[in-house]
Specification:
pullulanase activity; Glyco_hydro_b; 966 residues; single chain; eight-stranded parallel beta barrel; seven-stranded mixed β-barrel
Length: 966
């Protein structure tokens, strides 16, 4: 989720298990902004994890296995390690013959131990319970370059060569440990091992995985090189408690397979895996879904054997949908509308209750929501970005298990009451609502959005949804969350990958504990089979569901190489072979650089500065923070360019007049760079009057503002599902006494900056209708009540009670007087005007290709900013875009109608006039769409040719055009 790059102060709580029988502990961020998810622990407690989604900052990482505090320091003078040391995994088996370990220099002998039954035990001075003991030889040359390139965080480790190898493949199925002995022959240090390096070295695999259907049979394939036994338990139906048969799989080089009859299609199965698990130090029997599952039972506990290529699962015309896709000539033609599936129709009473809040609601052509999307599409909107719709935890797929609040009672409560949030929170983990950033299985549509979660319904209905979007002119982007998983360990019901190959899929720290910087259970795309699973999953959604794009959650936690491979794989899809035009699939994500991956700590990651040059988009938080003010992690009253900084102060102390004026001029530079697609080499005149590149303009913490190489790499936005809605932010940051009419104008002004910038504009659903969440800063689990979208435009959902206290209580003193003040609530007329203004902005953007330039050179040649330098008028941005014309023969003509466009953003509370002498005698007129607007204020904008002077009303963005031939 979009956020700022400033350092965050996050509080963490560590809860240690009190005994070895409590096999997990968690280190919990308490103070982060962003999504939360719940994880079930083996100690029978539910703990809540929040995610620092909008931040991009360093976070302490926690463990998910029991790790005693006293064993933390490997340099301790303690001679005899305790049994607890084996809960750590401080050594890395990195290739078939090399182990990396920070052993002490004073130790003389080193050994590798293996126990097939998991019986390793540390006594006073030795290791017992092993089946195999192999001496290790310290290598003086250190770790090979290929190892340190893949695992840069162990660059300083010593390398140990395994002297006499038995079958390594067999050893990897055992409990493993290394131990060091001093000159007296006593064990001084012992630890378990992390295995991803050697598993990649010996077992990287590119063959079939999951269920493979042929004319006469169904074959199952599971990559599980550390498993000792794998069986497939087959169930005739999803409700059966006992399998109809249990069939053993055979292993070849780490891949377990079985060929079954075609009659298995339509049945269900789980894998029974016997495998050593590092978190319990035991051989565990795990029942687990197939990581490559494409369908699930209603309760999500069994994998549905389904062939996605079956004609029975295809809506009419499905195979020819590629021919019906809306046109897309360039990625810079994209505009994105971010939408949560349930939000869209949960309150739309035109939609049948059986499909309300789900996939099929988008097929209801007569609904108010679909009509609204049609109108946005007609105005130019190209893509809908759907929040996670894969199988996630936090919402029961069976609707009959849901609880609900009494909406009729809640609506009668005061707007500043704390009773609404209390009622919502009381059932928030048992209702039908969650944003969905709690991944369980990446490749299966979420069952709660289907009319029936069992069998093939979720597959067919998801496809019908995509088809319905495409047929009203909108392409579909899927929000994918490959950076973490909801469950881990052998006992968590939401754990899948960590049951199949324990310790492989999840990224671990130097102690062997799971990294939790993304919230919980960070995945490791630097591992071969993790990356492969991500690439296979993307292909499944692109080919099997004809998804048109992907938005990567916390993309910075994924390796850059993985993202490049993903783009290459998707763009290679061909219409005549795959029935998909892969060249039209757009990918983008959150390039925040924090946690264990920061500064390339685990390899070159897909952060903002690393991803540039790949044509992969990333969110530009610089323009967001400059427009709004502060950051999502600063004081909520901190003002920015559009919310009154230096122009109409609120109650917050921003500093002296000189400081505030300087701050406003800095933010204006950030916005101008952002409006030029945040290109790092874009040259303009800065606030100091100097010609500078975008990358030479710095944030307050010294980072370059600009980083993009091409315009399609920049996602321009000011709001998203994270943090407060745009209208709510305006209500917080603007002066308390400001009228609701002026707040609505500011909301529109902010949206106009996004809509008229170069790059790819991104809008949060509802911002165009003044959407409110009653000032909730993190509504991931705040239910339908606080997340309501009203496409009848009767209400914007302002003043529906205090937002949930967990993330908002610290600001209740600011929230209460605002919610209680009836003047803050917009009327229907305000909402209708905002919707119309938004559609006008889309029409203006798509009225000229000059707003959607495809190349960095074109932006540099055509885009200019005026009103710059030390004498510029504060709070006013003047941008011109020039097309080729008779007096400028060296510039190609792109627009047949307009040869010049001038955009003036006046954030000041009063009318402003600005003169550009070089525009004298030119024939600028207000854009025809604004001339026909219902906004009387913008229609009063003027250009005086004799002086080259533009006049724009307060809090207004005016677009002037020079028609070709005039």
């Amino acid at each position: 989720m979009p956020m700022s790059l400033n350092p965050a102060q996050s509080c963490f709580h560590r809860e240690w298990s009190s005994s070895l029988s409590s096999t997990f502990h968690c280190q919990l961020p308490l103070n982060c902004v962003g999504k939360r998810t719940s994880v079930r622990l083996s100690v029978k407690r539910s703990l809540r994890h929040c995610r620092s989604k909008t931040v991009g900052r360093a976070m302490t990482c926690g463990c998910s296995s029991t790790v005693p505090v006293e064993a933390e320091d490997s340099s301790s003078t303690q001679i005899c390690p305790s049994q607890d040391n084996l809960f750590y995994a401080k050594a890395y088996w990195v290739t078939g013959s090399i182990i990396a370990w920070k052993a002490k220099s004073s130790d003389k002998l080193f050994y590798l131990y293996a126990s097939q039954s998991g019986n390793l035990c540390i006594t006073d001075d030795r290791i017992e319970g092993y089946d195999v003991k192999i001496q290790l030889e310290l290598c003086t040359v250190g770790l090979p370059t290929n190892v340190t390139d893949k695992f840069p965080h162990i660059r300083g480790y010593k390398a140990f060569k395994i002297q006499s190898l038995s079958d390594v493949r067999d050893l990897l199925k055992c409990q493993l440990a290394v131990a060091a002995f001093n000159v007296d022959g006593k064990c001084s240090t012992a630890t378990s091992l992390q295995l991803p390096g050697v598993l990649d070295d010996l077992f990287s695999y590119t063959g079939p995985l999951g269920a493979v259907f042929s004319e006469k049979c169904v074959s199952l394939h599971l990559w599980a090189p550390t498993a000792q036994v794998v069986n497939a338990l087959i169930y005739l139906d999803s409700s059966s408690d006992k399998p109809s048969e249990s069939v053993p799989l055979e292993e070849i080089n780490g891949v377990w397979s079985i060929v079954g009859p075609r009659s298995w299609e339509g049945c269900y199965y789980v894998y029974e895996i016997f495998v050593y698990h590092h978190s319990t130090l035991k051989i565990e029997r795990c029942l687990v879904n197939d990581p490559y599952a494409r369908g699930l039972s209603a309760d999500g506990k069994k994998t549905f054997l389904v062939d996605l290529d079956s004609d029975a699962l295809k809506p009419e015309g499905w195979d020819k949908l590629a021919d019906e896709k809306p046109d897309l000539s360039s990625f810079t033609d994209i505009s994105i509308y971010e939408l949560h599936i349930r939000d869209f129709s949960a309150f739309d009473h035109i939609v049948d209750p059986d499909i309300r809040g789900g996939y099929l609601a988008f097929t209801c052509q007569e609904s108010a929501g679909v009509q609204h999307l049609k109108e946005l599409s007609d105005a130019g909107l190209t893509h809908v970005h759907l929040l996670p719709s894969f199988q996630f935890a936090g919402v029961d797929d069976c609707k009959e298990n849901w609880k609900s609040v009494d909406f009729e009672w809640l609506v009668q409560l005061p707007p500043d009451s704390d009773e609404q949030q209390a009622q919502v929170v009381a059932i928030q983990d048992e209702d039908g609502y969650n944003w969905g950033y709690n991944p369980v299985l990446w490749g299966v549509p979420k069952g709660s959005y289907a009319s029936n979660p069992a069998g093939p319904h979720r597959i067919l209905e998801f496809r019908r949804m995509v088809q319905a979007f495409n047929r009203i002119g909108l392409r579909v982007i899927l929000d994918v969350v490959y950076n973490h998983l909801h469950g881990s360990g052998p006992l968590d019901e939401n754990s899948v990958l960590d049951k199949v190959v324990p310790g492989y899929y999840l990224r671990r720290n130097a102690d062997g504990c799971i990294e939790n910087s993304t919230c919980v259970n960070n995945t490791a795309s630097e591992h071969f089979m993790v990356e492969r699973l991500i690439l296979d999953d993307l292909r499944c959604w692109a080919v099997g569901y004809k998804v048109d794009g992907f938005r990567f959650d916390l993309m910075g936690h994924i390796m850059r190489s993985t993202m490049v491979k993903a783009k290459t794989a998707l763009h290679s899809l061909q219409r005549d072979i795959d029935r998909v035009d892969g060249s039209k699939i757009y990918i983008y994500g959150e390039g925040w650089d924090f946690g264990e991956v920061a500064k390339n700590g685990r390899g070159v990651n897909a952060s903002q500065f690393n991803i540039c040059g790949t044509a992969i988009g990333s969110f530009n938080d610089r323009i967001r923070d400059a427009v709004l003010g502060g950051s999502p992690f600063g004081h909520p009253l901190q003002q920015g360019f559009a919310t009154g900084l230096a122009l109409e102060a609120n109650a917050h102390d921003h500093g002296s007049e000189d400081v505030v004026d300087d701050m406003l001029s800095r933010l204006k530079d950030h916005i101008q760079v952002g409006m030029a697609a945040n290109l790092r080499d874009f040259i303009f005149i800065s606030r100091k009057g100097e010609a500078v590149k975008g990358c030479e303009v710095l944030t307050h913490d010294g980072l370059p503002v600009a980083y993009a190489v091409s315009p399609e790499e920049t996602i321009t936005y000011v709001s998203a599902h994270d943090n407060e809605t745009l209208f709510d932010i305006v209500c917080l940051k603007t002066p308390f006494e400001l009228s609701v009419h002026e707040r609505c104008r500011i909301n529109h002004l902010m949206t106009s900056i996004v809509a008229l910038s170069q790059g790819v504009p991104f809008f949060h659903s509802g911002d165009e209708m003044l959407r409110s969440k009653s000032l909730d800063r993190d509504s991931y689990n705040s239910g339908d009540w606080f997340n309501r979208l009203d496409f009848s435009f009767e209400s914007n959902n302002w003043g529906v009670g205090f937002p949930p206290k967990e993330k908002n209580e610290m600001n209740w003193s600011l929230i209460k007087p605002r919610l209680a003040n009836l003047s803050f609530k917009p009327q229907k007329s305000h909402i209708l005007a905002a919707v119309q203004n938004f559609k006008d902005l889309l029409r203006i953007r798509y009225s000229s290709p000059l707003f959607r330039l495809k190349e960095a050179n074109g932006i540099q040649e055509r885009v200019r900013f005026h009103n710059t330098g030390p004498s510029s008028v504060p709070g006013v941005i003047v941008m011109s875009i020039e097309d080729g014309h008779e007096e400028l023969p060296g510039l190609a003509q792109l627009d047949n109608l307009f040869c010049y466009i001038v955009v003036i953003v006046n954030a000041r509370p009063k009318e402003v006039s600005f003169t550009i002498p070089s525009f004298r005698a030119m024939n600028f007129l207000l854009h025809p769409i604004q001339l026909a607007s219902s906004d009387e204020l913008v229609k009063s904008s003027l250009f005086e040719a004799s002086s080259g002077s533009f006049t724009v009303p307060s809090r207004t963005t005016a677009v002037f055009v020079a028609t070709r031939g005039t």
